[in-house]
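Pilot study result, target chain (302 residues):
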Amino acid sequence: MIDHVVRLYPAAYRQAHGEEIAATFREMTAGEPWGTRLRDGAGLAAHALRMRLGPGPAAPAARILGLAYPFALAAAAAACGLHLLRWYASLLASPAPLGLQLGVDLSGAWGVLLVSSLSVFVGAASALAGRWRAGVPCTVVGLLSLAVAAVVSGPAFGDPVATPAAAVLAAAVVLACPPDRRVERGRAGPAAGMAGAVIALVVVPRALIDSHAVPWVSTDYGCWPLLVLAAAGVALTWRGGSRGGRESVAIVLASPPLMAHACVTAWGDSTAVACLVAVVSVAVAAMLLAGRLRRTGARSSV
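Predicted structure:
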């Protein structure tokens, strides 16, 4: 595994330090459990990715990634939560015996998709709670295994192109976040709280709809999750008093999992797709407007 991870480093750095990195990694992880080696390997891969992209801690890209990171976790968890809810609703609606359904669903690519979605949901929630060292590897492994299984299984959990592409992009955003800007225990920050609220506000209403607690709602064509993420971006912009540019880019970087879910939900419905495009456009405009209004209010109060 370590040889593949070392290849992620820039060529010049790899030629100068690749053998030393590999040897140190093997020495430090000798005799360690598989989970520990996987976690340390994920951290090393993240370091290699950051070196390749070049975002220093003070660079604009680092600040954007620091903003996008918790919301990328939230979007991935919310999308996987919706997958799991859809599976659970179909499980309850099917007349087949529960044991037979579980035996079929938990085998093959479908089972990998379910386990991967659960891994992403639990891992993202753990990372947002400050358990970065355990939560991020769990999330990234879940996203990558979901991407592979989605390609193999076809439309089982979405589109065989959009769904895995979104999962890989989400994993890249999470891994690319600089260490000094990630969510750590004891300093989660307001962005992590907003990200956790995004998960709840996406998954809980969907659960209420699937349980027929609100029978007048049939579907939202994927608009509601995107609206929740956009509202979080507006709140983040307003709270920070910035111009809204960084927040807009961060929310766009975090949105692929929910965009993929929305596109699959609205697939073939041109009106719904147009509404989704409008939602994203209005969300970006709202973040920029919120930043302007916040700065104007701050100047007038001085």
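One observation from the pilot: The radius of gyration is 20 Å. A full batch analysis is planned for the follow-on phase.
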